[in-house]
Amino acid sequence: MPAPRIHHTVHETAVEAPADRVYALVRDAASWPQRFTPTVHVRREELGPRDERLHLWATANDEVKHWTSHRTLDPVRRRVIFRQEVCSPPVAAMGGEWVIEDRPGGTSTLTLHHDFAAVDDLPGNVEWITSATDRNSTTELQNIKALAEGWREPDELLFSFEDHETVHAPADTVYGFLRDADQWPHRLPHVARMELAEPSDGIQQMTMVTRAGNGSEHTTASVRVCFPAERTIVYKQVTTPPLMTLHTGRWTVADTGDGLRVTSQHTIRLNAAAIPAVVGEGATPAEARTYVREAVGGNSAATLALAKEFAEARHAD
C-alpha cells in the first residue's frame, strides 16, 4: 500500500514581546490548561534534560481528543519539536515545531508548523484535521501573544483554593459519587439540571445548571477526565460564568490511613471587566476573589459533605 500523504500547515503571528518570554510560554506545557483555551489537561513525564512526554486532552472541533507526544526542547534556538507517539483518530500521524525568532525592537515572531497524515487518507479525515489544526493553532497563538504582551497583568486575577472532607467509607464509593455526575440533580440541592455524555472511556462532557442561594441559575459546560485507578477527576469549564475567564479543577480521593481525605481544588481567573456588574460598582479584585471563593467553595463544600453522608451511609448498611 502507498504511504499516506503528509499534509502541512503553518501558522504565524508577530508578538510585541521578547523571544525568550514567548519561548517560556511554549515550553511550560504543564500550564497550558490555564493558558490555552482548547487544552483540558496535561500530564508531563521528564525523559531527559531536553526531552519530555506529554499526555494531552484537548477539544478539537467540539470533540475531546487524547494523545501522547514526545517533545524536544531547544532553548538556545528557541524551538520545540514535537511528534505524537499515540494519536487519536482521524489522525494517523502528526508532528511539528514551534519556532520563536527575534525581531527588531525586542519583539518576536512565533511560528507553529504541523505535518500530519489522516486515517486511510480519506478527504473527510483530512478536512477534519485541517479544520481542527487551524482552529486550535490560531487560538493557541492568540493566547500566547496576549500572555506575552500582557506580561504585567496583575496576578490577583488568577487564584487557587481547596476544600477538604474526611470520610470513613470505601474509596470507590466516594469516587463513584463524584464520577456519577448524572445523579447529582437527585443528590445535590444546588444542581438543578445536568446533561452528561461520555464519548469515550474516562472522558465526560457535562452541561450543568447550578442554583444559587438567591434562587438564580447559571449554566456551565465542562470536560472531565476520570482516572479511576488514582480515584482522581480533573476538569475544565469550557463555558464559564461571566465573572470568570478560566475555571479548572480536580477531585481527589486519598487514603490517609485514618480515613479518606477528599479534596476539591479550583484554579480560577477572574474577568476584570465583569467585576462591577457581578460583584458591585467599585468592587476590587480582592472582593471578587472573596465572592467567587464563597460561591464556588460553598458548592464544593456542599458536594463534599453530601459525598461523605452518602458514602458513610452506604458503608453502614
Automatic annotation (TrEMBL):
Record-linked SUPFAM superfamilies: Bet v1-like (SSF55961)
Q: Which InterPro entries match?
A: Polyketide_cyclase/dehydratase, START-like_dom_sf
Q: Which domain of life is it from?
A: Bacteria
Per its record, how is this protein called by name? Polyketide cyclase/dehydrase
Q: Organism source for this protein?
A: Streptomyces lydicamycinicus
